[in-house]
């Protein structure tokens, strides 16, 4: 293909929108203009399905729930006035609360302003706020955010002790839809003990984000926590960033949540268009579909060329992989669908894994994310402008990949602010929804995640049974324990006891660890 043909193809497949300052270029993907007609019928069904979802249909069949993250940035499209009013009120309440904290109208028990936030949440309840922080936190503006998103005891200890100096001026936010998810529950319990051990009151500095009537909601109400914000049952964790999960951290660091919501809403409007060529999310999902032959045969590499979007690939991992990674389709056929996502940031990747992308196995496509506007305080020095070099690295990498026959697409925004992040998130949310329709999977359930939670609960319950059995002090082999408990996995018993013996002087495993079947276990 000569340069003129490349230019014509670029013009034919380019989408742009002046109001958002946004471009999407899929000309370097395996998409042709003829595909717009070829896939028209599939997209008619996909568009109708998403329209039905936005109108309030039960989209999460497994849990019998509506899926309403699109309503969060435009309450007027919610299916009932009650939902619309509750969303609007929540936005107002969050804005008011954030202003009260930043202005010092709400202070700690010593009359001092809050300086820090300790955020406890797992999955989207942690990744969304982290993306908000990394994107918009500025020095000396707003509160400092700290995240506890794991039950690693070493990590819990480190993170709690890191706020010790400012614990008196730290707010604690606990995010859990049900209030029963183990990770945030354990994190909350550790944080509560830490606060109480430092002779401070927990309730007066604690905030809950949860569903009305949940275990966490009841606890917060009964203990009179500082505030409670709603996490409706029709919002999944991976699409909760335009709700309280994303808005609360945004207001606490001084970001503009109205612009954030407006950017997402504007992108929603663009992606409701029923013509593929005029719908950026349809173009994006079609590029994914064609690239992986409708079976996810290529990984998605995400390369944002701005530091503030460094964690965006992690955010997309959950959004894309949890939504699309499904064993069964809607007709109960085993399809093992999904798209694996990984990435870092440019130009770091010039010196990391672009070498493999250019010359290694061809099992991926690249999403470049480009921001045109450079900050005015970084100026030319020695005839060098950093922004020009960054752009040069992006263009050069893109050209090198294209020359090597490697598929890539580019998402460009004029500037990076709250509006453009909202639009970027909404673009991928809609693309995921449309792609799921093309491959006939439910994007809104997570049976694999639920299976993992169930298996983890079984292990915790098994540990309790082992501890109860060993309370009599008798010596037993692993097989004897297994027979006594009527379990199906001697290996699980061994792994549990190995951990117990390492962390408690009460349990001993005598014998050769290389021959675990002969170990003698007892409790002293």
Characterization of the model:
With 524 residues, the chain is of the alpha/beta class. The chain has three domains: 3-66 and 259-377 and 384-445, Rossmann fold, CATH 3.40.50; 71-255, Glucose-6-phosphate isomerase like protein, domain 1 (Rossmann fold, 3-Layer(aba) Sandwich); 448-523, Arc Repressor Mutant, subunit A. Helix content is 46%, strand content 13%. It has 18 helices and 15 strands. The strands form four sheets. It has a six-stranded mixed sheet with strand order 1-2-13-12-10-11, with helices on both faces. A five-stranded parallel sheet has the order 6-5-7-8-9, with helices on both faces. Helix 4 (81-103) runs parallel beside helix 9 (244-252) and helix 11 crosses helix 15 (418-439). The model has no long low-confidence stretch (mean pLDDT 95).
Helix content: 40-55%
Quaternary state reads single chain
First and last CA, distance: 77 Å
Give the total of domains: 3
CATH topology of the largest domain: Rossmann fold
**CATH-defined superfamily of the largest domain:** Glucose-6-phosphate isomerase like protein, domain 1
- Uncertain parts: none
Structural class: alpha/beta
Query: Radius of gyration in whole Å, from Cα?
Result: 26 Å
Largest sheet: 6 strands, mixed
Major sheet strand order: 1-2-13-12-10-11
DSSP strand count: 15
CATH class of the largest domain: Alpha Beta
Share of β-strand residues: 5-15%
Number of helices: 18
The overall average pLDDT, rounded, is 95
**Globular, elongated, flat, extended or rod-shaped: what is the shape?**
globular
Q: Please give the CATH architecture of the largest domain.
A: 3-Layer(aba) Sandwich
